[in-house]
Amino acid sequence: MPSMTLRSLALLALLTMAAGTAVAGRGLDEPPGLAKVVKGARSTDVSSALAAPGVPPDCKEALVLADLAGLACRSAVASSLVRARPLDKPADLTARVTLLRDLARAADAATAYAPLAPPPGFTRTRFEALAAIGRALMAGHDELAMLPATHALGAGAATALAEAPGLRRTACGAVQRALDAAGPAGVGVEESGALLGLLTSHRCLVDEERLASKPKPVALQSSDDAKRVAAAASAGGAIADYASSRALELERCAKHVDAAGRPVDGDKLRSCVCGVMARWRFPARAAGANGEIAFRHALVAVKLDAAGAVAACGPVRAGP
Prior knowledge:
The protein contains 13 helices and three strands, in the order H-H-H-H-H-H-H-H-H-H-H-H-H-E-E-E. By secondary structure, the protein is mainly alpha-helical. The chain folds into two domains: 27-205, no CATH class; 223-318, no CATH class. The longest helix is centred in the middle third of the chain and has 24 residues, at 122-145. The termini are far apart.
């Protein structure tokens, strides 16, 4: 009887391990560098980083968790810790570039993570993780991009920015992933609009690399080029045409622009225009697209969902 009990316990242990593996599904493949940065920092520096802008709330408790919430916190805190250091020596630049590469891998990990039994609120947690990682990547990119060419590390920063696939493109892609995750997570227009603002302010919706390689108008090089341009033109035209057909509805927002048609208060204009457009349903060929809608001499960024409704709206910027 004792031997039977031992065999039963062993079998139970194996079944438990197998069940744990099945529930885990595709594991969270977090790059170890993020935790290494946090563990190697002084406790006072970590405390300061936890209070820094862009760090999710409740990170003090979540920082040690081996899940998406923990990944979001480690990404934001590690970014704050590294960017708080001086940028004077080659080692300082190396630390920043290494961090950005780890953040890019973290975005991949958060996107690929697929537990077989997702916990409650999983889609929201994934969105928050991708948003935190995207903001950290964009902040790190901006720090290097704003380094003057005359700085001792200027040439090294420029090289790091240009290294394929490009830090700007990587940062833009991470923010776009967060925006794509906003719909399934039921994220509100305010949060989605903040991410869309990052995309528009950093010209993520413009393929600058392609424009730089073809500065002059030339014939389309392939059928893929033609299809891509046609799709973009179709979606952009559909957004503009539909907005034009309902332009009168936006006139109630005229009190938020000056005599020249430019925004007086961008937040109030955004709230008004986005409130009107919340009832709109754009044509099918515009579904899922990003674009800008003109109102007087202001431009309002929008992202549409698969049904043609406005999923994210704002910010507002002065137009031509």
